[in-house]
Amino acid sequence: MEFQITEVDGVTIVAVSGELDGLTAPAMQDEILPLIHPGCKILLDMSGVSYISSVGLRALLLLYRKTEGNQGHIALSGLSEMIHDTMLITGFLDFFEAYDTVETGLAALN
């Protein structure tokens, strides 16, 4: 799993690539948790994620709760059809706003 972190107009963009599962979810949390602060705006670019397990979904939920607990906002972009469907069926998209592209996600967060 790889992460590329950039900031654009006050929004932290984390490009995630690889598989998000029990082996890689802790690394994702280690990368993203320090970015969470009061009022933060985080956009997870998931276009490079090929697979997500239940552990990966749980890690995303933890990030959501920490961000919301700090009056911040976290959103997703670039979900593959399979991951989007999984998140829709399991109710995870009730928590996250999901955008087709990084650009639309940035526009929504600003």
Question: Explain this structure to me?
Answer:
Strands 1-2-3-4-5 form a five-stranded mixed β-sheet. Helix 1 runs parallel beside helix 2. It has four helices and five strands. With 110 residues, it is an alpha/beta fold. The mean pLDDT is 96. The protein has a single domain, classed as Transcription Regulator spoIIAA (2-Layer Sandwich), CATH 3.30.750. The chain is globular.
Task: Provide a compact summary of the structure.
This protein has 110 residues and is α/β, with parallel strands linked by helices. It has 4 helices and 5 strands, in the order ββαβαβαβα.
CATH architecture: 2-Layer Sandwich
* Total E-strand runs: 5
The Rg value, from CA coordinates, equals 12 Å
Relevant CATH superfamily? STAS domain
H/E element order = EEHEHEHEH
Largest sheet, spatial ordering of strands? 1-2-3-4-5
What is the end-to-end distance? 28 Å
